[in-house]
Hints:
Layout: E1 8-15, H1 23-31, E2 35-43, H2 54-67, E3 71-74, H3 80-89, E4 95-98, H4 99-110, H5 114-134, H6 138-144, H7 151-167, H8 171-181, E5 185-190, H9 197-204, E6 205-213, H10 230-234, E7 248-254, E8 257-263, H11 273-278, H12 282-288, E9 291-297, H13 302-318, E10 326-331, H14 338-348, E11 356-357, H15 366-376, E12 380-387, H16 390-402, E13 404-410, E14 414-421, H17 423-437
Helix pairs in contact: 1-4, 4-5, 5-7, 13-14, 16-17
Family: Belongs to the TRAFAC class OBG-HflX-like GTPase superfamily. HflX GTPase family.
Main location: cytoplasm
Coiled coil: 108-135
Amino acid sequence: MRRRTGSTAVVAGRAADRPVDTDEIRALTEAAGYEVRGAVTQARAADPGTYFGRGKVADLSTRVAETDADLVAVDNELTPRQTAALRDALPEETAVFDRYRLVLAVFADRASARRAQLQTELARLRYDLPRLKERSDVQGLNRSVEKGTPLNGVKNRITDLERKLDDLPHPAEQHRAERREQGFDLVTLAGYTNAGKSTLLHRLADDLTLDGTGGSGGPGPHGRDAHPDAATETAAVRDRLFETLETTTRRATIDGRRVLCTDTVGFVADLPHGLVESFSETLSDAAAADAVVLVADASDSPPELREKVAVALDVLDGQGVDESAVVTALNKTDLLDDDALAERREAVADLAPDPVPVSVRAGTNFDRLRAAVTERLPTERAELRLPNCDEAMGLVSRAYDRAAVESVEYGAETVSLSVRGRPSVVEQLRADAHALGE
Ligand SMILES: Nc1nc2c(ncn2[C@@H]2O[C@H](COP(=O)(O)OP(=O)(O)OP(=O)(O)O)[C@@H](O)[C@H]2O)c(=O)[nH]1
Ligand SMILES: [Mg+2]
């Protein structure tokens, strides 16, 4: 993404009793377009006033001055009061973002489609509003609102945005309904950011042609419009947080069936789901899907993996996704030896009973993953007997196109066709066969 010219940051982390790890907050800060010039950490309980202890705040201030940083990025959620107190203690004009605000900055930067832009702005204002309300001093209030928008202005803008979003057509939903009618199965890839969802989509997709998009206005008549992700999708997938900010859908063929596979916005550790949810179409996609592949990064430590899988399953459940529709894929097994993998399986055993270990990068165990997905797709079988005529050939070709043809035998008088696929598709083929026979 574009780097904010000259924007620099110092990251700051605190933990009560463990070594303080700043990797993630660094990655987030970089994802928001800042160059990280330093890190300040503290291992002690949070100070209710300034979050960090007094001496540490002084250190932080010195570091900001030395590095001429524009921003202090704090690896946690700060109360409005803490944000204000920190700002007061730092050199003039230094912005203070907690991780939530940082994520909002990333989204604001990357959102390209109209819908995503509105959702991002709405999420930011909803984040700001309670913070503004809690501020009692008028001066602080004015300073904390970007560009001096008064409190009421923020409320009005929220209402305005909500109305605009309601009025905006929802191309993804409409598109989904159409595609279902055409006999497509819908599969959604979900999971934390950086788990490998987009890489998996690449692997599963039939070709590099995009077939419809989520938030960005929907496909044209042929479902082949370019998506903002198009350029980056063909490039190597980079190791960067929030690579995907809008849903992308590609056609895939799984077990002979026509599948629309949708990539989604990744979850983020320690963020309230509501935040990410509010500006992604992601979860509504998951709820509408026939199967959801929950992609997890198995190179995470077992407790972290467990936590992420638990949260993700919980979020999906909250969206009305049936547990039986979820396939859990433990990705990046190329980074693990057998013992390490066994530990990961053990860590999620009671949450995800039958996870599929895969390496999307190396292509390991794809057959099992495809099979696990197919198992979750609604399926019906039919044996059809058709008169051997031109129309029958049309029907056979439709069957190949939309379902899995298990066998086809051409006799002198009749054609016998054994087919398996989406119930509505099989139903239609059966009706067509019946009509031919009359
Ligand atoms: N070692 C290894 N790396 C992988 C594998 N699959 C994906 N990756 C890497 O993991 C990183 C993240 O992959 P993405 O596909 O962008 O992850 P994502 O889940 O789409 O992330 P967001 O779009 O941010 O939600 C990239 O650097 C991939 O190359 C794998 O099987 N093994
Ligand atoms: Mg992605």
